[in-house]
Amino acid sequence: MPDFKLKIGKGLRDINGATLRFFRQMGIEHAVMPSRYNTEVRKRGLVPGTDHGPRPGQMLQAWNTNELIRIKRKIEDADLKVAMIHLGRFPRILHGRAGAGQELENVKESLRAAGKAGVPVVEYNFTPLRGSEGYARTTGRGDAGLRNFDYERIKHLPPLPNVGAHTREQMWERFEGFLKEVIPVAEKAGVRMACHPNDPPVEVYRGAAQPLRSIADLERMIEVVDSPSNGITLDTGVTTEMGEDAAAAIRYFGSRDRINHCHFRNVKVEIPYYKYTEVMHDEGECDMLACMRAFHEVGYTHLIIPDHTPEFSGDTVASPRGWSFALGYMHALRQAAQKS
User: Fold this and answer.
1) Looking at 2-6, 40-44, 120-124, 303-307, which range is the least confident one?
2) Phi and psi at residue 90, in whole multiples of 5°?
3) Is the peptide bond before 200 cis (omega within 30 degrees of 0)?
4) How confident is the model at residue 206 (pLDDT cuts 50, 70, 90)?
5) Side-chain half-sphere CA neighbours of 183 within 13 A
6) What count of other Cβ atoms lies within 10 Å of the Cβ of residue 148?
7) Alpha-carbon gap, residue 102 to 124, rounded angstroms
8) Which of 40, 110, 135, 192 has the greatest number of C-beta atoms within 10 Å?
9) 231: closest CA among 216, 244, 218?
10) C-alpha span between 92 and 128 (Å, rounded)
11) Which of 288, 258, 314, 266 shows the shortest CA–CA distance to 121?
12) 172-195 tens-digit pLDDT
């Protein structure tokens, strides 16, 4: 096995001093930085809000290098290293709308800004509309708050007027064109891109086909442009939702150096792709220790973050109890994987 330490990190929604201190105290050394300077601590909802599609006139705006550096320095002052940033939504590209060309240039300029600011990975989603209306709140052990997904709640919903219907063929044509345009820019900027699979991984939501809903789709994606800059976010939860073996997926994509980020979570699946519950790390169907071992075996060098947390009774707005459980569990798994 390689002699190195896997990077357990945390996505930051704010850069409040208390937030940064807490995660550093939790043993976190690496972070996903926000794309704007925000010090307001807000609660992250257990159930995602409904995706209503783009606002009138919405277009992704290019990042400013100096602003990214300002945010990054604030995080670094708390003894944390910035390892990734998330690209915002780019609806004109996704929906094939007027202004897609300008939006594409804004994406490219954002990649250049990330490179100049020294941010090595940019994550993004290629999802025309997220099936968030399929989620609902439920409870787990000790009445902890959990969220589940059921496709029956959304499969008959009609297209939204501001989004419309989009076929799988249309989405893949746009996606392949996007990759061929942006990956060379990312390479030149010294940046790797990490595409998150569509979550929930259903075929269609409100008439909008989801192009990255399976392992086969992810395999197809990395073949469009053969480059380490054209990588995926390996989400152990989504992979398990698909009915797949997450550790095997880590070995497949990791051995090809195409995993540029990881969301590390667990689920219980009733019907693959269509019905499941997000649970604690220690009680789902994904073998989390096997996943951590697989990351170690393939020499993975990018971030592993706990993407979601259940609701713990008495927790405060920043959910420190939930994150503490997740991070402590992950630290233990890492130690076990690296000593085995």
Assistant:
1) 2-6
2) -130, 75
3) yes
4) very high
5) 21
6) 20
7) 18
8) 110
9) 218
10) 10
11) 258
12) 999 999 999 999 999 999 999 999
Q: How far apart are CA 86 and CA 35, in angstroms?
A: 7
Residue 130 makes CB contacts below 8 A (sequence gap 6+) with: 48, 51, 198, 199, 200, 205
- Over 90: is that where the pLDDT of 219 sits? yes
Whole-prediction pTM value?
0.96
Residue 98 one-letter amino acid: A
pLDDT digits (tens, 9 = 90+) for 95-126: 999 999 999 999 999 999 999 999 999 999 99
Q: What is the rounded average pLDDT of the residues 26-39?
A: 97
Structure tokens at 323: 């994150």
